[in-house]
Write a structure and sequence with these properties.
Layout lengths: L5 E10 L2 E11 L4 E5 L6 H9 L6 E6 L2 E2 L5 H6 L2 E4 L11 H8 L5 H14 L1 H5 L10 H13 L5 E5 L7 H13 L6 E5 L3 H7 L2 E6 L2 E7 H6 L1 H8 L11
Parallel strand pairs: 3-8, 3-9, 6-7, 7-8
Antiparallel strand pairs: 1-2, 1-4, 4-5, 9-10
């Protein structure tokens, strides 16, 4: 296996007196898309917040490109190559598409910023077409593309994606899915949190099942699809998710 760019070991985190993560282990290598599935309240977003530095780790280690970043603040992790695409996209509605993207590359040298902006527009022609349009006027799918493009502007080594399909129409889910698949070409490591297991397995080669703050399974996406626990809870009629073509 290629040495992981992101390596999480024995991670414990929580809120106040509540412990939400109980010794989580996972890793993601360069150019790899890895999914994390689980029910609401399983600890998925808590895990991403802890990796990003928004929530302190109570125990365990987070290593980014071989460096222990467990105690680093958010900004230092970002400069070291960690980018987040939060649930709900959170674009700056009043700013233009272009300005939203430039915010994502704040602090980078002008030459690198210009080259990355051209690359993002090449990956997302729709954003190029709407470059001077206020971000708040974009559709949900377009805003998700913008949020991903904004993360790419920092030149990240790791991208954390939180529920990118949430609230999108099926056609928009398909378009965003194509965008995420194309991230393999950036060589960034992608950790994808997605409640829609069918979507997650179509995008990721392997994944983890998180339940009640613990990793309950780790396998290829094909193997997880066959796991009875996953089939009954996340891919069957109980999930209410159905299937989306990507």
């Amino acid at each position: 296996m290629t040495d992981p760019i992101l390596h999480v070991s024995g991670l414990v985190a929580g809120y106040g007196g509540l412990e939400a993560l109980h010794g989580v282990d996972l890793h993601v290598a360069a150019g790899e898309i890895v999914c994390l599935i689980g029910r609401n309240g399983a600890g998925k977003t808590t895990l991403l917040k802890t990796i990003a530095g928004l929530l302190p780790a109570r125990a365990g280690r987070i290593r980014l490109q071989g460096r222990d970043v467990t105690a680093w603040p958010v900004q230092r992790r970002h400069r070291a190559g960690l980018a987040s695409v939060p649930e709900g996209r959170r674009v700056f509605a009043s700013l233009t598409v272009r300005d939203n993207l430039l915010v994502g590359g704040y602090g980078r040298p002008r030459r690198a910023l210009t080259a990355t902006l051209d690359d993002v527009y090449g990956r997302f022609p729709r954003l190029a077409e709407r470059s001077e349009q206020p971000a708040g006027t974009l559709s949900g799918g377009e805003q998700q593309m913008l949020a991903i493009g904004r993360a790419l502007m920092s030149g990240p080594a790791v991208i954390l994606l939180d529920e990118p399909s949430l609230g999108l129409a099926p056609q928009a889910v398909a378009r965003v899915g194509a965008v995420i698949s194309a991230l393999r070409g950036t060589r960034a490591a992608v950790l994808l949190v997605e409640q829609n297991a069918d979507v997650a397995f179509r995008l990721a080669a392997r994944g983890y099942l998180l339940e009640r703050g613990r990793i309950r399974a780790s396998a290829t996406s094909a193997a997880l699809r066959r796991d009875p626990r996953v089939r009954s809870a996340y891919l069957g009629t109980e999930s209410g998710l159905g299937k989306t073509t990507l």
